[in-house]
Fold each of these.
Amino acid sequence: MNSPVSYEIVDSIGVITVDNPPVNALSHAVREGILDAIHVTKSDESRAVVILCAGRTFIAGADITEFGKPPLEPYLPDLLNEIEASEKVVIAALHGTVLGGGFETALACHYRIALDSAKVGFPEVKLGLFPGAGGTQRVPRLTGIEAAVELMASGNPIGAAQAADLGLVDKVVSDDLRQAALEYAADLVASGAPIRRTRDLDVEAVDDGVFVAMQAELAKRARGQIAPLKMLEAVKGAVTMPFEEGLLQERALFWELMQGSQSRALRHIFFAEREAAKIKGLPRDATRREIQSVGIIGGGTMGGGIAMSFANAGFAVTMLEIDDEALERGLSIIDRNYGGSVKRGKLSEDQAKTCRDRIAGATDYASLADCDLVIEAVFEDPQLKKTIFAKLDGVCKDGAILATNTSYQDVDAIAAATGRPQDVLGMHFFSPAHIMKLLEVVRGAKTADDVLATVMALAKKIRKVPVMSGVCYGFIGNRMLGPYMREGQLCLIEGSTPSDIDTAMQEWGMAMGPLSVGDLAGLDIGYKARAALPVEERGDPKSYRVSDALVEMGRLGQKSGAGFYSYDPETRKKLSDPAVLEIVEREAAALGIERRNIDAGEIVDRLIYALVNEGLKIVEEGIAQRPGDIDVVYVYGYGFPAWRGGPMHYADEVGLEKVLSRINEFRQRFGDHWAPAPLLVQLVEEDLTLAEWAARQ
Ligand code: 3HC
Ligand code: NAI
């Protein structure tokens, strides 16, 4: 087999080229190839060595597909020590995304030259790991402790110029990296530049107090994730131990993380996110329609955020409102949001202005005639949506894609209001739409393949994570939220306080507790939805009586200053409210419920297994393409802790047999709404995990 690494001598400089598409990951063959080449350089006539990469990027990290399998020699830390030990000057030439083990490779070289567009960083924490090939020992020697810890704890890459300021890159060039690297190598040789081994640099001495403070800060930020704290422990080794010992400790801590459930979960999410972007049966290069201009109907909470997402990605946007006043209101919220981005340093004034200038307002449907894509985000009223789609059918050009941001309505019924249902689909954004990463792409029964392929690819351009859903009430995410919220409300009326429930869920890892989520979204939404249904279709009164009573008292949630909690009018701080408990007790008594003590374990199991059970039904019905898609929805759209891998992965980690037996127990105690999903019963009978089952589909 051809090696992905080649070696040649150019003008007496040895050039090692890694060519391992798509991202030059450090697979076994790459590690072996680099090691062989380094061995050759020892005795050939090269005067210096350049390591560079073909394709779109320098090495973007270790090969994650090899994680969890038995490691093969040469191990990366050993290879990097070998590069660093070279008696010839070794220069890394960086472009693209120089990440993780890729950046560690560069730091083991003696000098680093980078294209100005290159980005460098350590995303390992996002995989439940930290740099495990000398990064925790070498970075502090170059940048000092605090900058090193920040870089490795955030997981976010920095640009070449900033890397140069921090001492991580020696030279930045604007083009022809290969030529510039060859010239740089020749200059270093000509000037007799020393072989500068990072390991030999002194480490800044820091007080133990600095580590104590950093640990407290990281523990707060990490919210249950252990990798950042282990990283800190490894970095501390750079200060307290000789280099070799520090490396050994780093390796031990890295392996501990690699074997653990958090990294397994985060690696699952990494691949699930990429898998979710693929539609079964559609080739990767499926035909797509050209999208340049986007129309948005409705400039409220969602429309404004959707407009910003497209404008930020360079699209021309026309936002249509019902009249001038509503349009002014919508545009002024967008102005305020851009102002906030500038204030927080997310965008420069110029960048914000450029993006804002891409959004035009309109009140006349004719202004949408030339749009390539139109997204409707008006009130959740099925009749209104159908009227709008019929109107769009009349004004939009042939081939325009027509999307609805509906949360619950039937996309097929909306498509049927047009004479072109093949051009219609759902694009379900999450609030705030310019920030939240998830986009559920709802495929209608008649949605054309090229429409679907276009929107899945478009999602990536506007920096969203797309997941395809079939049509059903609430699609993937909100459909699952129903039983989850139901259990939250049932725990409340059966004995818990709002804060018992929210604290249990947050301590387990959810970004917010369910009752706080209810207050944020507005309790009136569910109230109105229920009011539209006949009583017998509203579900068990135990699961909504308290919420409805709150709404009837004007406690709509945060927007009215009170809901399950009250909110300080000045600070908006959430406060427990004895009045709520009185209502809960009153409603419980009216329904004949004797309240009892419910422990945190029961709260968590009921809420999470409610998600799991509904998720299994969704997979079985084919609404989601695969279990991993559901995990991506929950992690990116609903604040599910990524380090638990999403509800489906979590069920596999717990063990499906255990999950089933707890669900059966709940069924006996609480009733048939806990009937287990048939797929769960089947998998337990067949002794299969969900992941195994999914791999066979
Ligand atoms: N290992 C194996 N495969 C990888 C990979 C890696 N490190 N990084 C990306 N890939 C694969 C993806 O799975 C995807 O495969 P697919 O096409 O079959 O779905 C393909 O490469 C392209 O990836 P993206 O779709 O993500 O491409 P983008 O251009 O959008 O992004 C990227 C490129 C920024 C490099 C992004 O892929 C990324 O962030 N990759 C992960 C980088 C990373 O985490 N590196 C650290 C690894 S851990 C480590 O190095 C440990 C060390 O300290 C010892
Ligand atoms: P909103 O009430 O904030 O905004 C709706 C806007 O539509 C209003 O500004 C209104 O003036 C405008 N509008 C009404 N009729 C119109 C018409 N005929 N032509 C043009 N504009 C018209 O509502 P929100 O929250 O933005 O919701 C919009 C849609 O997005 C709904 O379908 C909702 O279910 C969905 N959604 C809402 C989420 C949320 O968290 N708010 C999350 C995801 C989806």
Amino acid sequence: MFVDRAARIVFLGPPGGGKGTHARRLSEKYGISHISTGDILRARAGDGTDLGTRVQSFIEKGKLVPDALMIEMISERMAQGDVQRGFILDGFPRTMEQAKALDQILAERGTPLTLVIDFEVSEDVIINRLSGRRVCPKCGANYHIRNIPPRRDGVCDRCPTALIQRADDREATVRTRLEVYRAETAPLVGYYRDRHLLQAVDGNLEVAPLEKHLWSHIEAV
Ligand code: AMP
């Protein structure tokens, strides 16, 4: 008999909560796909098309890209072969409409979510993490000027590219992103709790101890 043991996980939590860092690490260690809608959108934002320019303007303002576009994007991604081995969704869903659409897409494939992790993080930690975050514009690796510094100052460890600060990590935009999170995304905590999928973790923790907690939740499913 076929036993489906793939982990299909959503990482929920505010910007700066550690979703991307941990999704990347866990996906590399355990061979499950990391699907970051922010990364997919950033790749489109720079492609010179009208759609790319529109996407870029939403991102730079800290606003959400419209649901219809996001749902189409995730539906295409879920049709790719690698997701059968499991996935971590980082940054999707962000609205109730997206959450319902995701349930439907996965139900049609007979592969429902197995776990939702809620990263609970204080606002001070968020501001500190985002203001110190630096990213590699080429490979997407994330660093923090104090917490996760690159080996060589200002240069990516993996591909020797100069690190940058994301435009939407500047303070005014961070405030908008937090407001959007509270209004649109935070209600999903209740949605997934009602479906008995939710586990909360303390997102204020440093990378190593938080990774241990995360892994224990993933293994327990
Ligand atoms: P992130 O890298 O997850 O912080 O996403 C960066 C930006 O991409 C967000 O501030 C939004 O503008 C956009 N974005 C990413 N995921 C979504 C989503 N699921 N729905 C709408 N907008 C999104």
